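For this section, I looked closely at a protein sequence along with its fold in token form, which I now present.
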Amino acid sequence: MREGAISIVLAGDLVLDEPDAPYWLAGIAPALQAADLAVGHLEVPHSARGVELKGDVPAPAAPPENVGAIAGAGFHMLSLAGNHIADCGAEGIADTLALLEAAGLKGTGAGLTLSEARAPAIVERGGRTFGLLSYNCVGPELSWASESRAGCAYLRVETPDGSPIAPAADLRRVTDEAMATLRADIAALRQQADFVMVALHKGIVHTPARLAPYERAISHAAIDAGADVVIGHHAHIVRGIEFHRGKPIFHGLGNGCVVTSALSPAQDHPARREWAERRKVMFGFEPDPAYTLAPFHPEAVNAMLGRLTLHADGSVTVDIVPVDVVAPGRPVLAQGERKDAVARYIEQITVAAGLPPIKIAANGTVSA
């Protein structure tokens, strides 16, 4: 790495419901710890209390002590705006925010009010300032913050028939109000940060390659408004990579580290048990039975971290770090044939999604 360069590593969803979180994270920790700045997405609240949110399939809270393990693995910043962060209500969000602060982690995208949720996270590295914004694009609407309700920051995406905004809904068009919010928040952050990152919880879950109609539009709008990178997650399977105005868009980083029993059919929560079966019919897949803690689409074993290198002259190199998810759901840095296979997979799904082709070199560098 050149003198004065700053490296940023980007990870997707983090769901750490299981004990011994350091073990589950250890397979990707070397890449995180080698970076000057590591950013992930915290999918669920970490709390021992709270009232279960009604209206969607709620995820269980993760153990509070696992926040410290996330920091110990090398993360510095976390986006929080997603469809499960409010699943334990205001208490779950308050506890999560307190735990992040205690662990020295910067979070954005959730708060006790909408103003708090929209406030960016900002850190300094090497004399430069880095800012992160986080938005939920997929609902459920009950998880969205207001000035009188805890929740997450959001950007409304309309359904064609006006049905409720929910993670499995047919989401089509970003509203004008949402676009205005996105532009205003990015413009405000550009006054405070040299490098602006926008995290979007978006996309179609459990489905290879495919992008929903709104995804490119909202990602391009973020770049047009001044973002330097768009970070996508939510689908629990990786998506393609795109460059817009020379800036990278990771349409879906997939699972950063997801180990949970909440998707097991053999559990005592009726709504989660029913969803574990229904999603397989809805999205046409059958998980590998060996992946008891990550029962996702079989292609989700192809995972990645994004990596950016900001050079002293302001130029940015874009890379991926191929990740292999091994049974029962532990991510590890891919080696040998699996490393090459993951890179080829990402090239293929980029084209399959209708995006311009990309090339991933042997060292992970991504080019248009």
